[in-house]
Design brief:
Family: Belongs to the UPF0236 family.
Organism: Tetragenococcus osmophilus
Strand order of the largest sheet: 8-5-4-9-10
Shape: extended
Protein name: ISLre2 family transposase
Number of domains: 2
Pfam families: UPF0236
Helix content: 40-55%
Largest sheet: 5 strands, mixed
Order of helices and strands: HHEEEHHHHEEEEEHEHEHHHHHHHHHH
Structural class: alpha+beta
Distance between the termini: 77 Å
Amino acid sequence: MESIVTDLVEVMKKETNFLAREKAMMVFFAQLLATITQLAFQILDAEVSTQCKKEGFQVDRKSERTVTFLFGTVTYVRRRMKNQANEIRYPLDEFLGIRKSFRYSSLVLRNVSQLGSIMVYRHVSQAIDCLTSWRMSHQNVQQLVVKTGELIQTRSTHESRYDGIISKKKVPYLYLEGDGVKIGGQKKQSLEIHRFQVCEGSQKVGNRTEMIAPHFVSHLNRQQAQKEIMNYIQAHYDLTNTVVVSNSDGGSGYEKAVFDELSLGCLRHEHFRDRYHVHRKIKERLSFVPQLQNRMIQAIQHYNWPEVQLVLDTSESLIEEKEAETLEQLRLLHHYLQRNWPYLKPRKARGIVDPKACIGTIESTHRKMTYRMKRQGRLWTKTGAQAMIRVIDSLRNQEFDGWLNQYEALPNDVVAQEKRWKAMKRWVQKKPNFQTHEGALKGKIGEGKAKSAPLGQFAKGLEQLITTPNYI
């Protein structure tokens, strides 16, 4: 202990200003932690390897590995163990949660991915440089987020993820919404994030209103997002006595029929057209008569179709210019309201008297995605976008830590597939044994054929071929 203090004092004396002195102290402590950690890993490796020996594994060899932890970079030696079935294990790596092909610890994966979900990768790189003793480029940050997203997706989308759930919730009302968000894609592509969310209502927390037990699912493929949210609902809720209340803008893939499928087995399903989109449509179509926009909105809120028709007629009478174009706008608005009229009926008129009702919130919950993925003209690849979507959703669903705490806890079929792939790679990479060959035999068409006949001409052509290459 005294030698450590003496060395620290010497390090501090070498620097001439405050900032350089503190940086030197930081480097000193990082090196000290790395040395202590190496010694601790040696003891741990011996202990965890003993347990593997009881399972039929034997030490194959020792190999070195360098891993970056949050406190610094550590290089350590650990045992590689193998059994009679040629299965390979690194007990110390399993104990520490260090995954294959990853140079960073689980806590680094978590913190870097969480920072990457709220700021650009260059800013994450700068934050790491400022607050730690090691560095990471923005390209490495991106690779790390993508790998983490793929790791989470493998575990969170498998069918066996809900096998441990025994009892299901029984709630009077369940609120379900869906919508899509456009983001920029690389190579002039346009990507769309398809989002579904489900909750049990809303409640006041201080001055804020929060959803009760929310769950969010997002994907670049709408069918996949629909499948995931359906699996979640069927695994967690008993809908026998539940009224499912759904809400959407009615776009492609978010029609009432989609939510009918998601609410299979429920007591009753009530579908609403999203109020935000209805109001926006009204203001867009009645832009030439702004004084009638609020009147139309109030008529819809009171579910009064004669009043809606009266507003449309009044608007038509006030047309002053561009008559054909304005009439077309009124016609489109009339058909839009007529088509969606059953879904505009108020909650109280349908007998929904839940004080915790939560409808029309999906537009506000887009912000976690849009703030990170749409600002500053950002462009995404499909792989990068899907990884970021998965990280953001798992953080919001409070599942992120749970997935990262699983070390190779993959379903059996995924493990078997990986083993088959590795075996096939090893087989392909093996150098085949050399086999002697007799070579090609020279063929010849027999005599007795007229040279003017087709077969004779073919025989003459064969004789003229050079069968021996020039380089031999």
